[in-house]
Write a structure and sequence with these properties.
By secondary structure, the chain is of the alpha+beta class. It has two domains: about 35 residues, no CATH class; about 35 residues. The chain is about 50% helix and about 20% strand. Strands 2-1-3-4 form a four-stranded antiparallel beta sheet. Strand 1 and strand 2 form a beta hairpin. The longest helix has about 30 residues. It is elongated and about 60 Å long. The mean pLDDT is about 95.
Length: about 80
């Protein structure tokens, strides 16, 4: 497994995984798939706001659909 951060890549074992993740390193398996993200990750505000807006829209739609299902069950 490997620990990646910026331009640094270290080969680590299972015992070191949590220590490197706490320092902000992403932990990947031998195939390059991220198995644990490092602490302290940040995203741009615009990306956060876009995701928040999408979440609120989907939450509202979900509530509406649940109400429609409830109404359909009553009439059935």
């Amino acid at each position: 497994m490997k620990a990646n951060k910026d331009n640094k890549v270290y080969t680590i074992d299972e015992a070191q995984k949590d220590d490197y993740a706490a320092q902000g390193y992403d932990i990947t398996n031998d195939d390059g798939e991220v198995i644990q993200y490092g602490a302290g990750k940040k995203i741009e505000y615009e990306v956060y706001k876009e995701l928040e807006d999408k979440f609120l829209k989907l939450e509202k739609e979900n509530k509406k659909l649940k109400e429609e299902i409830k109404e359909l069950k009553k009439s059935a």
